[in-house]
Amino acid sequence: MLSPYPRRAARLSIPALVPTLAMVLSALPLHASAAAPPPSHWFSANIGGRTATLTLIAGYTNALGGFNFDGYGKGAMVVNVPSGYRVTILYRNNGQYPHSVLVTPYAKKDLVTGWPVAFRGAASSDATDGASPGATQHFSFVADRVGTYAIICAVAGHEQAGMWDVLRVTRGGKPFITVVAGRH
Q: Where would a tag sit more exposed on the chain, N or C end, judged by fewer CB atoms within 10 A?
């Protein structure tokens, strides 16, 4: 049987393809290969201790022009915790601008300023001015009211740019994190 491929193609070697492959890869935008890790990378829980820890890195990727948490924004990342859990947020600003973290009722997320804090202690320090690039912070709160909340950057204009995700406080169940397909 005759092969549909010319014999010359069988003689190409990997070393001969390396310069061409390097040239093609160098032409790709840098952020094309910088995908966000799965959301479970950023979340852990201790069911017996009724605690959950969420790591949020502002500007983790170039998604949404850098206005993201852990590479997600516009409500794509959804954190679910049962009511009564103590939630600790470990926050780092990897972005080019000041950023912050504040948990507010979901219905209030689209305010331009003056977001109410959903739970006592559920905001980084200087939430409206934000933390400088490279800064790290942590804070914790008890998620003691069932409902849907937004995790936002409270620096003016950042929530509107898409820098927000979702916190759901449930009546029971186990804590988990997920991504809504097509939103990031």
A: N
Residues 89 and 56: beta-carbon distance below 8 Å? yes
Would you say domain 37-179 falls under CATH 3.30.240.20?
no
Distances (CA, A) of 77 to 48, 121, 131: 24, 21, 22
Give domain limits for the chain.
Answer: 37-179
- pLDDT tens per residue across span 73-102: 999 999 999 999 999 999 999 999 999 999
DSSP character string of the chain: ---SS-HHHHT--HHHHHHHHHHHHHHS-GGGG-PPPPGGGGEEEETTTTEEEEEEEET-SSGGGG--BTTB-TT-EEEEEETTEEEEEEEEE-SSS-B--EEEEGGGTT-SS-PPPSSTT-B-TTTTT-BPTT-EEEEEEEE-S-EEEEEE--STTTTTTT-EEEEEEESSS--EEEE-TT--
